[in-house]
């Protein structure tokens, strides 16, 4: 239907040009004199060019795109070059190249910036390099490049969309965070520690002298029978992996900050050779049971690149069943709005929970409303740690666990 419309439009413009030429010729024939023939001969080259442009095939023009920035972070610049090549040296006048995309965020960011008008003339090759600053986070698809040519006065216009589909991934920004597990459990109680270490008693790595407090089951009885000296088995220390990170995709003006915080936390955990489970609650529940390697982290970053604030119902209703499946002893909940209902849902559904830290994302200097402050106090009364974080104090998320 669109092709038929374009065809009719093109031939309608051609008939207009031919009619205009016929009109000036008739005027010269019947009027006579220098002025009337001067008008005809002045209009003749423009009309002939318009007729020739009508039959110039746009398929002669080949377009390609080179992307210079393979990986882009939110807020950084994206750069690409469009190459135009053609076989015929037909003179082209007003030529417009337009980058086409269906991404609403990218359209808003590049309004009027991803278009170039130039006059190729007889040149067969032309290159156009453009740059988009402050790229928005997301997966943006460049559908293709539209080329449009026109004559001197716009009597004849022709356009063609050259499909050049390429994806541009704009990853969220991350901040370097020193990761420290929220709590370590030992036989004599709990204490704050920079690392969560537990003994892997399935394999002994050596023996050492007995120290008061060592378990009886750790004594190396064969060595004691030979030497009559108490010796204790040594086991490999391994890092505890019972941390669960959860966030909700509630629509909020602070959602982008929340995504950057989650990305920074996950990156810091993996880089510290620890592991974590991650649950993202939205229209769909995205659960990643184990995040431990760089490959796992890459999958998470791809998810955080595309994720949108699509949670339409309360987080406690959307993630109720998923909360019941959490087996970790430490829970880290990231949100832009903490509610009493969510605190109750965590307390009711998450079994064997020893520690829960709620990170509430805010803007710098933004005060808490009375409703928010009441929810925070309620969470603290249930033993939860609540901390309001903004981009300027992301790095102290784990080092100041008692901050408010």
From TrEMBL:
Record's keyword terms, sorted: Membrane, Transmembrane, Transmembrane helix
Residue spans crossing the bilayer: 38-58
Signal sequence range: none
Coiled coil: none
InterPro entries membership: DUF58
DUF58 domain: residues covered: 207-344
Protein name per the record: DUF58 domain-containing protein
